């Protein structure tokens, strides 16, 4: 089945943010939750809300566009970059949230943030069955989870995560089956490209995957047709930040796959980097580099030695979380350019297209 998002949306009735739907939201917290919070959270964890942060919108678009460019012919890439820059500039130069629904949603989101800040014993999660949003008392939730975890008929404590061992043994078993010709080589190639058609002359469909932003993403439909690609969207700003599986918050320095920023304590200098490892591991390397007896260049160490300055190792800022390396490297490059007094080498942004630099410079001035 093929669905064109624009045609689908045109047929939808106008959404209402004033009415509660039956069996969409249930309050088991024992506290009074304002109706307007219930009306927005009843929409579910995957409901996409507009972002008020234009810098984040720009970074998300640019890093995803760059990660998709290999899908069009190399000689057309420069022209494509030149076309999309004015589109992004026009969107960012005016309010992207100029419709009543977007404004209303952001008002509700802000109100929900304030409500949860003042009512820390209330949590929202998804029902075990169906898509109902459930409000619970945090203390009651923890007590019930603790009871289940202590029940030996429900859970058994294991001393070590077995996933790596199971994966290794599965791979070994598959190799044995392959040697004995129980399975073919083709079955072993898990990354083999799928055939789109029996017609060998037919080219596979290339998909541009971009973040969905109202009043912006739709402008790319006519654009990508010229490049023989199709559009698919994802949301980077969902209600999942409120409605989620209740797990302990991961400490900042234990996060992986991040773009980070380190600030100098004694001036406005800063450094932007990226790592796929735990942030604490990478920051420790920056911090301890000054003690090494080698000639490897480090702009952070050079700054510390030349000016006798120190960095705020406890105040490192996470700028982006991105699992895919190519996107993370693009995000790093964009954030490096956004610095007002960055210590990064010029070579770190030499691949940044001049039209992107112009867009980013508009935000550096504010």
Automatic annotation (TrEMBL):
Q: Which residues form the GIY-YIG domain?
A: 255-337
Q: Which InterPro entries match?
A: GIY-YIG_endonuc (IPR000305), GIY-YIG_endonuc_sf (IPR035901)
Name the PANTHER family on file.
Answer: REVERSE TRANSCRIPTASE (PTHR21301), REVERSE TRANSCRIPTASE DOMAIN-CONTAINING PROTEIN (PTHR21301:SF10)
The name this protein carries in UniProt is GIY-YIG domain-containing protein
Q: Which organism is it from?
A: Trachymyrmex cornetzi
Q: What is the lineage of its organism?
A: Eukaryota, Metazoa, Ecdysozoa, Arthropoda, Hexapoda
